[in-house]
């Protein structure tokens, strides 16, 4: 493709590109919802979407890099909007919902998501065009698009990239199927006495979690390993010693203490780390906002604006943002209709709309800056959600303090969670918008077309999220939910983030939050912040220990965290090995795509399995009568995982070298 083609694109916003983007969004959103409910983490979908787009659109001679960019922009909504599942399952856990209502869920996702796009448009010039922020994921997506669109080698890499995603997907789905059949053990675990206390470790036999570790990288992997060491090497042994349970097994003793005490310390670590992170960003965010408004004032009235600087006009942005407050208020009022706090619906809706407006603006600015600083996947969305639900719960609690009646506290908690969902949707889509606009800047795209494309992705994601959530609610349910007796599945989903968020809301409104455990965790978090600062300063920013990563590993089950650490280590070793090859860059990109395939395959298989569970009303419809013992299943799972990962990494390295011969 010539440079002239890049400067003046033949096609950018096309029907086929939009349809392909929507299709990829629907598939990846389903995968993201499952992964987020199981792990509490999601992954960026821009790069795998870009590779799939390039491979499929190559059949059209008029396909351009800008058209592929529109596809990945739409599909990137799957990696972000699905983060609302960090809050929504809490409404099932507290017993407010028994099923997931489509309209209520769709409304929160849609209003919050579109506001997230609108709020970040004024920030584009300051935080993208005139900024030296690195935007690691945006730059990586742009490089993939440039390589895949601009040469014969790029065409070959596009083909191999699509094969990599497919191979990873098939391998992961088959692995998950064997686990569902009970041929592979679902978890490898061991617990033992530690002095007078107890501890241990578990690890899910999951290629998806290993793939997530590869994508997160070695820095987050090391942070999570540190969290595992703190939780299970220090806190669990100490707390089990202080709280003996002589009548239960070692495993139950360790897991009970972790769940009821250590996990809250992890929440304290996350909260302290999040506040520190946001505090550091206050000055840059304010400067960015002022710069954005100055840039808008400085635009020449009636002047010709270059195509690559054309946003959705600021007047339309303002009108749309204000207009969206009406449906926001309607959805908030609809949520309260017929409930025990209908009598105070007017002040609650007014507070909710104001909170979405103001907290959403702040969250959008914070997340937009964080996307540029550390990438959308690594942004501390958990911290944003924690701070948001604490603020929402405090305000809702004050308004509802004088109301007396059954289920009033539950209704107030539910309303706080729903308001938090809207604000979180604003935050995560804002996080994604600026990341996409950086990619667009590097491939000579038109900003307003990308902004419209992301709105389309938000609509597609908002449609599919309620259906997938309800399917998983009926097939598995969520840990601690009141409706577990009515679901078909045998193993509820942990939904770790939603558990934390709903627990915080209940604690604030009910006045019984265990501030002592949170305070201990906050002190640990501050100590980790100090360690991170020392590491960064002494290594000239080469080394770090992200406190949020450590906190997540303390808070999440070890069964989830351990395979993520293994995946991060495996990915780092692979990158080191191929780093010496002549085709190191393509080999690394193929490794990323295999890891993405691991996530997609297992997640989609489990969504399909959920449908089968609901249809057959059997918790284990694929279980076979000749399944081996659990011990043998553990060995089979470990061996198979090692063979699959090493085999596919080897294929990726060989394929990268073949690209050079094209």
Q: Please state the CA-atom Rg, rounded to the nearest Å.
A: 24 Å
Strands of the widest sheet, in order across it, are 1-2
Structural class: mainly alpha
User: What is the 3D form?
Assistant: globular
The largest pleated sheet is described as:
2 strands, antiparallel
The SSE order reads HHHHHHHHHEEHHHHHHHHHHHHHH
- Taken as a percent bin, the fraction of beta residues is under 5%
Number of helices: 23
Helix content: over 70%
**Span of the ends, CA to CA:** 16 Å
Walk me through what this model shows:
With 662 residues, the protein is an all-alpha fold. Helix content is 73%, strand content 2%. Strand 1 and strand 2 form a beta hairpin. It starts with a helix and ends with a helix.
In short:
It is built from 23 helices and two strands. The chain is mainly alpha-helical and 662 residues long.
Can you give keywords for this protein?
662 residues, mainly alpha, globular
What is the topology?
Blueprint: H1 3-7, H2 15-39, H3 46-57, H4 65-81, H5 89-93, H6 102-120, H7 124-129, H8 136-150, H9 152-180, E1 187-194, E2 197-204, H10 207-216, H11 218-242, H12 250-298, H13 314-336, H14 345-374, H15 381-399, H16 408-442, H17 447-475, H18 496-510, H19 515-538, H20 547-555, H21 558-578, H22 584-616, H23 630-659
Antiparallel strand pairs: 1-2
């Amino acid at each position: 493709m010539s440079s002239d083609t890049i400067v003046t694109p033949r096609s950018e916003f096309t029907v086929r590109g939009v349809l392909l983007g929507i299709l990829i969004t629907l598939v990846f959103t389903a995968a993201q919802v499952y992964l987020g409910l199981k792990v509490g983490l999601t992954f960026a979908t821009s790069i795998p979407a870009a590779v799939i787009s390039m491979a499929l659109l190559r059949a059209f001679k008029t396909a351009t890099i800008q058209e592929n960019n529109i596809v990945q922009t739409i599909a990137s909504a799957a990696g972000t909007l699905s983060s609302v599942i960090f809050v929504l399952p809490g409404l099932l856990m507290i017993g407010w919902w028994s099923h997931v209502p489509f309209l209520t869920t769709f409304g929160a996702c849609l209003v919050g998501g579109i506001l997230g796009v609108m709020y970040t448009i004024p920030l584009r010039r300051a935080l993208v065009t005139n900024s030296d922020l690195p935007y690691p994921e945006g730059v990586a997506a742009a490089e993939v698009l440039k390589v895949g669109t601009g040469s014969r080698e790029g065409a070959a890499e596009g083909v191999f990239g699509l094969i990599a995603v497919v191979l990873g997907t098939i391998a992961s789905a088959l692995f998950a199927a064997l686990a569902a059949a009970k041929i592979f053990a679902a978890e490898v675990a061991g617990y033992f006495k530690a002095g007078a206390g107890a501890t241990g470790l578990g690890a899910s036999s999951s290629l998806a979690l290993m793939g997530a570790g590869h994508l997160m990288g070695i820095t987050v992997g090391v942070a999570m390993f540190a969290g595992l060491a703190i939780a299970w090497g220090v806190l669990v042994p100490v707390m089990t010693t202080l709280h003996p349970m002589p009548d239960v097994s070692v495993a139950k003793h360790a897991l009970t203490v972790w769940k009821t005490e250590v996990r809250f310390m992890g929440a304290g670590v996350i909260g302290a780390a999040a506040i520190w992170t946001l505090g550091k960003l206050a000055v840059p965010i304010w400067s960015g906002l002022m710069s954005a408004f100055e840039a808008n004032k400085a635009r020449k009235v009636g002047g010709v604006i270059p195509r690559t600087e054309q946003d959705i006009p600021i007047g339309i942005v303002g009108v749309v943002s204000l207009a969206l407050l009406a449906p926001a208020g309607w959805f908030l009022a609809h949520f309260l209709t017929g409930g025990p706090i209908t009598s105070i619906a007017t002040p609650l809706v007014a507070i909710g709309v104001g909170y979405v407006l103001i907290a959403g603006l702040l969250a959008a600015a914070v997340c937009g800056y964080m996307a540029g600083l550390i990438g959308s996947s690594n942004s501390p969305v958990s911290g944003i959600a924690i701070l948001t639900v604490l603020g929402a719960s405090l305000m809702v609690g004050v308004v509802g303090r004088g109301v007396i009646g059954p289920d009033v506290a539950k209704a107030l908690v539910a309303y706080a969670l729903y308001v938090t969902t809207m604000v979180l949707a604003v935050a995560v889509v804002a996080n994604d918008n600026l990341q996409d606009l950086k990619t667009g800047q590097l491939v000579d795209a038109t900003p307003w077309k990308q902004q419209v494309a992301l709105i389309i992705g938000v609509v597609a994601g908002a449609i599919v999220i309620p259906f997938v959530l309800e399917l998983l609610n009926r097939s598995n349910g969520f840990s601690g939910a009141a409706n577990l007796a009515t679901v078909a599945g045998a193993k509820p989903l942990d939904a770790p983030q939603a558990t934390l968020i709903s627990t915080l809301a209940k604690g604030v409104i009910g006045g019984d939050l265990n501030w002592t455990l949170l305070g201990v965790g906050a002190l640990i978090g501050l100590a980790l912040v100090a360690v991170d600062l020392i590491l960064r300063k002494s290594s000239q920013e080469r080394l770090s220990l992200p406190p949020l990563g450590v906190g997540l590993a303390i808070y999440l089950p070890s069964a989830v965290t351990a395979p993520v650490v293994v995946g991060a280590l495996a990915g780092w070793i692979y990158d080191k090995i191929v780093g010496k090859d002549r085709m190191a860059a393509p080999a690394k990109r193929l490794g990323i795509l295999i890891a993405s395939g691991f996530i997609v395959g297992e997640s989609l298989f489990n969504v399909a399995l959920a449908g089968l569970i609901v249809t057959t009303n059997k918790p284990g419809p694929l279980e076979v009568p000749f399944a081996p013992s659990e011990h043998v299943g553990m060995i089979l799972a470990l061996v198979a995982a090692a063979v699959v990962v090493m085999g596919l990494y080897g294929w990726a390295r060989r394929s990268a070298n073949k690209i050079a011969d094209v």
